[in-house]
Amino acid sequence: MASALKIAPGDSVATLLDDARAGETLTLAGDTLTLAQDVARGHKVAVAALAPGEAVIKYGYPIGHATAPIRPGEHVHSHNLATALDATLDYRYAPAPPATLERPTAASFLGYRRADGRVATRNEIWVLPTVGCVARTAERIAARAAALVGDAVDGVHAFTHPHGCSQLGQDLGGTRAILAALAAHPNAGGVLIVGLGCEENQVAALIEAIPATARGRVRALTAQASADEVEEGVAIVAALAEAARATREPCALGELVLGVKCGGSDGLSGLTANPLVGRISDRIVAADGSVVFTEIPEIFGAEQSLMDRASDHRVFDGIAGLVNDFKRYFLDHGETVSENPSPGNVAGGITTLEEKSLGAVQKAGRGPISDVIGYGAAAHARGLTLLEAPGNDAVSSTALAAAGATVILFTTGRGTPLGFPVPTVKIASNSGLAERKPGWIDFDAGAVLKRGFDATADALLARIVAIASGEPTAAERNGEREIAIWKRGVTL
């Protein structure tokens, strides 16, 4: 007998937990259904008759409308379900009563406490090029310096990009803001900025954009003005590493800044991995910690549920503004707001953006949203912060790191090897992925289906504590450490 999960009592579809064949039966809340077609794991099957134009309900919310008659037991996907998303909207401020979050058990991790009071999960030297022209130079400096400094710090890493020249206005400002925010990150015990000399993103302007409290551990060199920029850079990094020596000490769970992200999602992401991360988010928020979430185009269709959690009218206006600005961004470029999901999402069982969004927003748990910040800005509020960034995995994860996340929880149903400046914990939505790609995956959220959410959340929290205390993630072991910057506007 096939197994499936109906998430909310009023849902008109259930999600298959295993591949199933036509003629197999499902039992849901005492009702028995016979499958009309073969249905793959993560895909949906109707549990009620649906007429053309009728809303299809999952997670207790509409995920689109039926485009053909659908009988109970039939596969529900792109052939008979379509999005109902439209352009920009007027939203209502209707705050819901705040959820009661259970305080976590006393938990702590071993972190590096910085002079400004922030706590780091790594103590590294970061080499940041101002412009793509010196990206390889930055990599050469980092590679040579890493061999030289030994165990003085946890690592030396160059984070390269192709930008910094031929940029104007907001586009140049975004590049500068991201690099300045990364230079101020607590996980960087020291930073070397490598400039070329003639680029738009001038070294002096970039340093001026770095918060004054962080500039003391930042050094810079300009390649065009140096007799040997690599030798000079290696010497600077060696001095930074010696000055950055530090010792881990016990730190409260609430001193973590958690970034949450999903990528390569499948039909189980919204049933296992994302709600599991939501429970971790709730524990961090309950411990007076900080959680940052983003992917604005991937909350289209679920935005009202977030707006209802705004801590005040200012936050509500911020969420509504971000959502409508992103919709306008799509429309101004001649694109529909519902172009998502990706081909991989569709193959994994996600049909519409509403469905993807309702699953994705669960990573933010149930707590109130305390703040809304722009791209390249740092998160300062305790609790949940919504960050302006697109859904692209590399761009949004870089923005989370720049906002101050010291650990990123990255859920995936399809798998990806990508890693980012801070420890990136890959969480599989299904056990098959975790078993197939152990070199990519740090945690199997498919265990939720056997062990339940509470026990699995306890295990995931223990894994996060170990990683925050220095245990490397799969991406770190694989040398997967990179950034991507949101490119907008005119290129000269």
UniProtKB/TrEMBL annotation:
Highest taxon above the source species: Bacteria
Record key words, sorted: Lyase
CDD domains per record: SAF_AH_GD (cd11613)
InterPro entries per the UniProt record, alphabetical: GD_AH_C, GD_AH_second, SAF, SAF_UxaA/GarD, UxaA_altronate/galactarate_dh
Record-annotated membrane-spanning stretches: none
Occurrences of domain SAF (ranges): 11-82
Keyword Lyase part of the UniProt annotation: yes
Pfam family name, one: GD_AH_second
Gene3D superfamilies registered for this protein in UniProt: 2.30.130.110
Family: Belongs to the UxaA family.
The protein's name: Altronate dehydratase family protein
Lineage: Bacteria, Pseudomonadati, Pseudomonadota, Alphaproteobacteria, Sphingomonadales
